[in-house]
């Protein structure tokens, strides 16, 4: 995964913390914590190795670059990347009190965001949808990179029939984590409910690429293909869903309907939090 700021390339090819402790740093840093104008951003030259024989100056200078990158990510509400930048800074210069303070503030926000997600899930289980929405909104405001908050919020909006709001939330989740099969699946369901079948099929297929044993994705892919008249593909999708879960009654009925030349007129509502 590339760790990139959404508005500028703060860090390219971000190393692991283990590599950083060995003295490796990224090729370039492009940062300006206080200016959104790209023409005013500046490049920091590559440092391939921190030379301990030259004393601690190189480490302190490199730590400052990570601190600047952390500020840039923080100002762009990229909490997770800001936290990593400050951690790298402190690995190199534990005496940097500004980085330590900023790290503490962001970690607290991250924890509070997770707590709000958990509270939202509890409210959802209790059937209190409106309170759940409030908690999920609070979670994503505390940490705009909290993928779970965006996914759950998008799913609730879908259940409420607010499909445009649902799609926006799920698109945000995907932009934050392109490997999240649940986000793609729920996005596909929202597209499906919106009547955008071709796009829904594409997203179901992405979800299946990421999670090949996702029975509901296979089933709903079958429904979408069937609605487009692609009966052979639809039957294959239903059969695959049934193969993955022989107790999946809706898939069994769909396969049986094909055998009887009937048209199943149902779509599994297996959205996922």
Descriptive notes:
This protein is mainly alpha-helical and 273 residues long. Among the domains are: 79 residues, Serine Threonine Protein Phosphatase 5, Tetratricopeptide repeat; 94 residues, Alpha Horseshoe (Serine Threonine Protein Phosphatase 5, Tetratricopeptide repeat), CATH 1.25.40. It contains twelve helices and two strands, in the order αββααααααααααα. It has a two-stranded antiparallel sheet with strand order 1-2. Helix 5 packs antiparallel against helix 6. The longest helix is centred in the middle third of the chain and has 29 residues. The N terminus is likely disordered.
- The neighbouring-strand order within the major sheet is 1-2
- The total beta strand count reads 2
Order of helices and strands: HEEHHHHHHHHHHH
Shape: elongated
Query: How far is the first residue's CA from the last residue's CA?
Result: 23 Å
Q: Give me the secondary-structure category.
A: mainly alpha
Assigned CATH superfamily of the domain at 180-273 = Tetratricopeptide repeat domain
* Mean pLDDT figure: 81
Question: Which CATH architecture of the domain at 180-273 would you pick?
Answer: Alpha Horseshoe
Largest sheet composition: 2 strands, antiparallel
| Radius of gyration over C-alpha positions, nearest whole angstrom | 24 Å
* Residue runs with pLDDT of under 50 for 5 or more positions: 1-54
The CATH top-level class label of the domain at 180-273: Mainly Alpha
């Amino acid at each position: 995964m590339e760790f990139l700021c959404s508005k500028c390339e703060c860090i390219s090819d971000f190393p692991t913390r283990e590599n950083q402790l060995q003295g490796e740093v990224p090729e370039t840093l492009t940062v300006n914590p206080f200016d959104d104008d790209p023409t005013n951003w500046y490049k920091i030259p590559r440092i391939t190795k921190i030379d301990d024989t030259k004393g601690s100056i190189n480490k302190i200078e490199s730590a400052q670059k990570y601190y600047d990158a952390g500020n840039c990510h923080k100002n762009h509400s990229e909490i997770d990347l800001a936290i990593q930048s400050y951690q790298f800074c402190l690995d190199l210069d534990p005496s940097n009190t500004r980085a330590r303070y900023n790290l503490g503030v962001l970690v607290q926000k991250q924890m509070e965001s997770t707590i709000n997600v958990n509270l939202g899930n509890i409210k959802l289980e209790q059937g209190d949808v409106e309170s759940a929405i409030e908690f999920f909104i609070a979670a994503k405001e505390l940490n705009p990179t909290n993928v779970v908050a965006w996914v759950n919020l998008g799913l609730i909006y879908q259940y409420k029939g607010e499909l445009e709001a649902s799609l926006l939330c799920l698109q945000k989740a995907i932009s934050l984590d392109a490997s999240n099969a649940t986000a793609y699946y729920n996005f596909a369901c929202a597209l499906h409910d919106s009547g955008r079948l071709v796009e829904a099929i594409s997203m179901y297929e992405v979800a299946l690429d990421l999670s090949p044993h996702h029975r509901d994705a296979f089933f709903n892919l079958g429904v979408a293909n069937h609605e487009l008249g692609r009966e052979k593909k639809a039957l294959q999708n239903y059969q695959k869903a049934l193969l993955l879960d022989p107790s999946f009654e809706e898939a069994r009925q769909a396969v049986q309907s094909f055998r009887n030349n009937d048209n199943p007129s149902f779509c599994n509502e297996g959205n996922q939090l």
